[in-house]
Design brief:
Radius of gyration: 27 Å
CATH class of the largest domain: Alpha Beta
Distance between the termini: 95 Å
Largest sheet: 7 strands, antiparallel
Order of helices and strands: EEHEEEEEEEHEHEEEHHEHEHEHHHEEHH
Structural class: alpha/beta
Helix content: 25-40%
CATH superfamily of the largest domain: P-loop containing nucleotide triphosphate hydrolases
Number of helices: 12
CATH architecture of the largest domain: 3-Layer(aba) Sandwich
CATH topology of the largest domain: Rossmann fold
């Protein structure tokens, strides 16, 4: 099917003055207006039909079901994947003749997460278009979503990262590979009920803050990476430390509206969640966290926070610790000796320890550390 040769399309007219007769104005069809577009199908359909943007909803269609659709052949766009040194279809458009709706797919095979969707025999949908003057449009749209489209939920760990590009802030989703977690071996006994509570609250609720703190190397980051696969119904959005200040940016708030019911992860954020003072430049960040997690915006955005830090809990703003707002707070420490040895046994290590150790030290216990030994300097008289 060619959209520009169908009944849906009406060419835009351009006024033109001929050089021979300067006073004569003619109306010409602008046949080339979409040829220079990176996304010509989206530009074309946006001009002629109302649509629904679903690019943030992880909606997919099985490639086998596309047999019920006609592929639109007005344009053939190409993207490039540097990893495989191959080109692939950049934008695909299909029309369902019975339901009279268009679906638009934008692939990005340079992204490992989208690549996995493709390997699973699925196509990621970004837009759906319909004819608003058709009285059957609501029923047809309902039938489209009921029969063909469903949410893609991978059991793999994944995270979206907040980035700033030339055209503004963006979320980009990537697969991650956490170290396999065994709660009975890698964390102390008191953490198991805390984890069950965190997992339950993150999966079922839509507001609140989780505070995870303690010594470096105690497994906070790997736990969060593993947690993303334990709560697949939620989108985990990692906010790098240098991007935390953008929590107050109106553009970021607009993005969260399109990513409702997400979990925002702020790592090493002690400087941003510390007790507020009159001279504190990060006061607005704490206020934004409170507002998104349990304030006026919480009912709109339905987002939760996981904050990690290495400083003492006493330095955190007390408002974050309020009952009803705080989902859980846990201090990670050294792994107890018996659990540390049980863990070493589970990884077939013959080494044993006689003191509590951090998880990072245990997982890398066989690694040789190439660092300079600093000799102790003594000052005194001989």
């Amino acid at each position: 099917m060619k959209i520009m040769q169908s009944r849906f399309f009406k060419a835009r007219k351009l006024l033109s003055i001929t050089s021979e007769t300067p006073c004569l104005v003619t109306a010409l069809e602008d046949e080339r207006q979409y040829l220079s577009k990176y996304n010509p199908f989206e530009s074309l359909l946006d001009d002629i039909l109302p649509g629904v943007y679903v690019g943030n909803a992880s909606l997919v269609i099985e490639e086998g079901l596309l047999a019920d659709f006609e592929r639109c052949t007005d344009f053939y766009t190409v993207d490039y994947d540097a990893k495989t040194n191959q080109c692939y279809d950049g934008e695909l458009c299909y029309f369902h003749p019975e339901l009279e709706v268009f679906i638009l797919a934008n692939m990005d095979l340079s992204n490992e997460y989208d690549e996995r969707i493709k390997k699973d025999g699925l196509l990621k949908i970004s837009n759906v278009y319909y004819e608003s003057i058709n009285p059957q449009a609501p029923a047809n749209m309902h039938a489209l979503f009921e029969r063909y489209l469903h949410k893609y939920e991978s059991d793999e760990a994944k995270v979206s990262i907040l980035l700033k590009e030339t055209h503004g802030l963006v979320f980009k989703t990537h697969r991650i590979k956490p170290y396999p977690v065994d709660l009975e071996l890698m964390y102390n006994e008191d953490f198991t009920p805390i984890h069950e509570h965190i997992k339950s609250k993150l999966a079922d609720d839509n507001k609140g803050v989780v505070l995870l703190h303690g010594i470096a190397g105690s497994g906070k980051t790997n736990y969060i990476k593993w947690l993303t696969s334990q709560v697949p119904s939620k989108q985990f959005i990692f906010v790098p430390t240098n991007m935390i200040s953008y929590l107050t940016d109106p553009e970021f708030m607009s993005m969260l509206i399109d990513h409702k019911n997400s979990i925002l992860v702020l790592e090493d954020c002690e400087n941003y969640i510390a007790e507020r003072t009159a001279d504190d430049v990060n006061t607005d960040v704490v206020s934004s966290i409170l507002n998104i997690a349990d304030g006026m915006l919480s009912d709109i955005l339905e987002c939760q926070f996981i904050c990690t830090f290495n400083s003492d809990i006493s330095k955190v703003d007390e408002a974050l610790l309020r009952k009803g707002r705080l989902i859980a707070e846990y201090k990670f420490g050294l792994l107890e000796t018996d659990r540390a040895n049980a863990y070493l046994e589970s990884i077939d290590s013959e080494l044993r320890v006689d003191l509590p150790m951090s998880l990072a030290e245990l997982t890398n216990i066989d690694e040789i550390s190439y660092k300079e030994v600093v000799k102790e300097m003594k000052i005194g008289f001989i």
